[in-house]
Amino acid sequence: MRLRPFLAPVALCLALVATGCSSDDSADGPSESSPETSAASSPSASASEPSETSEPDTDTETDTQEVATDQVAFDVPGSWVTVDAAEAFSGDDATEDPVVQDLAERLGVTPEQAVQTFAQMDLIVTSDGERDAGVLTNLNVVHVPGALPTESAARAELKQIGATITSIEAVETGAGDALRVAYTLEAGGGQVRSQALAVDVDGQLVTITVTAGTETTSDELTDLVVDSLTAA
């Protein structure tokens, strides 16, 4: 069955989690691959290293960077790693790209698997190694021609991949009307917390999908995206 536009980035996100998430990895992976900061918005703050570079929590909350696609722009934690998927995953030699190899290493997949999974995306942004309850906190952006799905359509599509919806609401953003859906998924031997923000931007359906290991992290990162989102 062919995936609908709203569901496609969610399924891609699930593929990322299933290949890159493992509670064992997060437990025994020494903090050497943990980032010095995982920014309060999405990656849960790592207890040891973040405190060195950012004093109070409020400091990390303002440590953001703007990322953009051709359709939208929004803020993410300042320490996060951004990959322009359209550029990084195109071409016959994509698996040789150091950016692709670095992303694949952090996700625990091969460069070939990374290219196959993420070539359909516009943008991928991940914490630079910090895992939230075993999940490499991340978001991805996909755009397709089309209109905003109805709540009932979004529910039906998410059920196709076994998602359990915890909340769904219409929201207003600086880029246009949007639908925000929070849900849980079983993946990688555990449960992940995801949110999809679908926005109608001049006839393009832009979906930003956030995945984390805890509801708090997922909420904080999605709040940051919603509050800062503008049309590019």
Notable traits:
alpha+beta, seven-stranded antiparallel β-sheet, three-stranded antiparallel β-sheet, 10 strands
**Strand-and-helix sequence, N→C?**
HHHHEEEHHHEEHEEEEHE
- Please state the average pLDDT score: 75
Q: What is the assembly state of the chains in this entry?
A: single chain
Instruction: List the strand order in the largest sheet.
Output: 3-4-5-9-8-7-6
Beta-sheet strand percentage?
25-35%
The helix-and-strand class reads alpha+beta
Q: Report low-confidence residues grouped into runs of 5 or more.
A: 17-61
Number of helices: 9
- Tell how many strands the DSSP assignment holds: 10
Which sheet architecture does the biggest sheet show? 7 strands, antiparallel
Give the % helix. Answer: 25-40%
Shape: globular
Separation, N- and C-terminal Cα atoms: 33 Å
Spatial extent as radius of gyration = 16 Å
Describe, in short, the structure shown:
The protein has helices spanning 7-20, 23-28, 50-53, 57-61, 85-88, 98-107, 111-118, 151-159, 215-228; strands at 64-68, 72-77, 81-84, 123-132, 135-145, 164-173, 176-187, 190-201, 204-212, 230-231. It is α+β, with helices and mostly antiparallel strands. The strands form two sheets. A seven-stranded antiparallel sheet has the order 3-4-5-9-8-7-6, sandwiched between helices.
Task: Walk me through the structure.
The protein is of the alpha+beta class and 232 residues long. It is 32% helix and 35% strand. It contains nine helices and ten strands. α6 crosses α7 (111-118). The radius of gyration is 16 Å and the shape is globular.
